[in-house]
Amino acid sequence: MVPLLVLSMIIVCITVDSVLQRSARRRHQVEAGVAAMSDSSARVPDGIRASSKLEHLPMGVFVGPGHTWIHLERSGAVRIGVDMLPVTLLGGVDSVETIPAGKPVREGDVVATLKRGDRSIELRSPVDGFVDGVNESVLRAPENLRRCHDHECWIVRVAPGRLANALRGMVVGEDADRWLLREDLRLRDLASRRVGRSRDQLGDPSASDVSLEGLANRLDERQWQGLIDELIPPGGSSSASDGGSAHGDREARS
């Protein structure tokens, strides 16, 4: 009887230790992803300000490379919204289309489309799962995306699978603010080239007078599509925590 009790205690101890080790590894992976993003963001010069209202990012959301954010609900579902860069590029939003509730999605699938005039931007899901709700208030009044800057401005809600994997490719808090600032500067530099102005003509691109506000109306279709491919990579598979290396690879090839 005693040997059986001792054996049971050993098995329990081994099981608990295994669980703790897996949890520690998972936490380390998440922290490493955020740290990598933080290190790459440190290249932004001090004192530089963004051209769009990046401070309107809701508090406590995780931001991904497709310029969508997620807010974790107590139920385990996540609300998916959009940061201000896509909205700024369009100059506002006339309508929002979403996939219907109940449909399964995979990371990188289009879950919503923002439209203004004949221009549109597709938003891709940062997580696997299925859509269990859409924000009817945003569909009825899409212009509120420019004025509402809290968690109530979500667009679709997803019951996620493998959420920990998705979070490794996202950033939060000050890291998210710095990443968005870098994106703002990068897109202003790209936009200057799309409209035929060189880096030398602009001088310091961080002080560029290129405005992203309503840029969709100032680019032709080819220029616009090229900029959107840089804003939201097709397939949505690159990670925000890689410091934008996928963007750099595409620029090197172009």
Describe the protein's architecture and organization.
The structure is a single chain. With 254 residues, this protein is an alpha+beta fold. It has a single domain (1-254), classed as Beta Barrel (OB fold (Dihydrolipoamide Acetyltransferase, E2P)), CATH 2.40.50. The protein has 8 helices and 10 strands. The strands form 2 sheets. It has a 7-stranded antiparallel sheet. The chain has a 3-stranded antiparallel sheet with strand order 4-6-7. Strand 2 (68-72) and strand 3 form a beta hairpin. Helix 1 crosses helix 5 and helix 5 runs antiparallel to helix 7 (221-231). The longest helix has 40 residues, at 2-41. It is globular and about 45 Å long. The model is unreliable at 2-50, 198-208 and 244-254 (pLDDT under 50).
Distance from first to last alpha carbon: 73 Å
Q: CATH architecture, please?
A: Beta Barrel
Structural class: alpha+beta
Count of runs of 4 or more consecutive helical residues: 8
What is the chain-wise order of helices and strands? HEEEHEEEEEHEHEHHHH
Shape: globular
Task: Characterize the largest beta sheet: strand count, sense, and whether it forms a barrel.
Answer: 7 strands, antiparallel
